[in-house]
Design goal:
The chain is globular and about 65 Å long. Helix 1 packs antiparallel against helix 2, helix 2 crosses helix 8 and helix 14 packs antiparallel against helix 15. Helices cover 68% and strands 0% of the residues. It has one domain. It has 365 residues and is mainly α.
Length: 365
């Protein structure tokens, strides 16, 4: 088991934020950092995945592991994430159907785009299997499957030139913004909520910058010098969020996605804001770790077991939505569902690590 570290800590914070934000309208949603900026926890989650890939595909001496080993490692992780997505989706559908039966309310079958499955299960089942039909609030893992599956390409290119890997990623990103490329949903109309052609840039930024920060002291030095710039960007994001200032997609010039705050296409404004968040908070973990060890250990535990915690958190947030729907919500209900959910996330992380421990050898007779 890894000791607490900054990557796991911030990934754990992203998981907690996603869990709370996936219970729309709850009292505590307004206190998450996602409500005070242009970007949110999704950007942090994907970027840290790329940073972790950069670490995992290199040895402790900083040298890259064999190419085949890296490819197999990433493909194995892709299969693992895909399996988690299919299992989580199946359980979510069962929860929706069970709640509709229990409350005798067929309208619940329409929640989060689930209506297509119950109306046309044959086509929709195929859509779930190939990730083209997604439930609302259950659409991050499909993105993750594609990004991790494509990561070997960028990892191998980065071994020859990180600049080339970043240039390739930027080209795909900008072309997707200009021509509004996205993957289609099927069956049904529309596109993916998280456009993989754009969000891959965050993953690649994590891979590339992890390598540069590991090898170049001057980059670490400049990152510290740019903390005031990051604070200014964060402050601007808070101002824009509080006063609900957003560009009107109908009046901005073409290509319009370059000038909006679009989440699906990871518009440049969101990307710039996220970079500002990274700069502004880069030294916070070192301050918090010795002063709040229990909190740091809890969040790092979530981050170490992010896939299991995210999957369980998605189901818990769906259950919390049903509880609020039936009870009408309120501060007390929100306190119960959020606190019990956070406890359950901690238990999930503990259980995963407990299972992974080697069994103790039996004492000799």
């Amino acid at each position: 088991m890894r000791e607490p570290n900054a990557i796991d800590f911030w990934r754990g914070l992203a998981l907690v934020t996603i869990f709370i934000n996936h219970i729309p309208g709850n009292t505590f949603e307004r206190y998450t950092y996602s409500q005070y900026g242009i970007s949110d926890a999704a950007e942090l989650f994907v970027f840290l995945a790329g940073w972790s890939i950069g670490i995992a595909t290199h040895g402790r001496d900083g040298r890259p592991e064999p190419a085949l080993t890296s490819v197999l490692r990433l493909l194995s992780r892709t299969v693992e994430v895909y399996r988690a997505q299919i299992t989580t989706m199946a359980l979510a559908l069962a929860m929706i159907a069970g709640t509709a039966l229990y409350l005798d309310n067929p309208l619940i079958l329409e929640w989060h785009n689930a209506g297509g499955f119950f109306a046309d299960p044959i086509q929709t089942m195929v859509g779930f299997a190939v990730l083209t039909h997604q439930l609302g609030f259950f659409n991050i893992l499909p993105l993750y499957v594609l990004l991790i599956g494509a990561a070997p390409i960028f990892v191998l290119v980065a071994r020859f030139s990180r600049t080339a890997a970043l240039s390739l990623s930027l080209t795909i990103y900008l072309a997707s913004l200009v021509f509004e490329w996205n993957l289609p949903s099927w069956p049904g109309e529309g596109d993916w909520f998280f456009n993989p052609l754009c969000w891959q840039l965050l993953l690649v930024l994590g891979i590339v910058f992890q390598g540069w920060f590991r090898e170049h002291a001057w980059m670490r030095s400049w990152a510290r010098r740019l903390i005031p710039l990051g604070v200014a960007i964060v402050a601007l994001g808070i101002y824009l969020s509080i006063y609900e200032i957003r560009p009107d997609p109908l009046v901005v010039p073409d290509p319009r996605l370059l000038f909006t705050f679009d989440k699906t296409y990871l518009s440049p404004a969101r990307l710039i804001h996220f970079v500002g968040v990274l700069l502004a908070f880069q030294a916070v973990y070192a301050v918090l770790a010795p002063r709040f060890p229990a909190m740091v250990e809890y969040l790092s535990g979530l981050g170490r077991n992010s896939l299991a915690v995210f999957s369980i958190g998605s189901l818990l947030s769906l259950g919390a939505q049903f509880v609020r729907f039936q009870t009408g919500g309120g501060v007390f209900v929100d306190l119960v569902v959020v606190v019990s959910g956070l406890i359950a996330l901690g238990v999930t992380a503990w259980f995963v690590e407990w299972r992974s421990r080697k069994p103790r050898p039996l004492a000799s007779a």
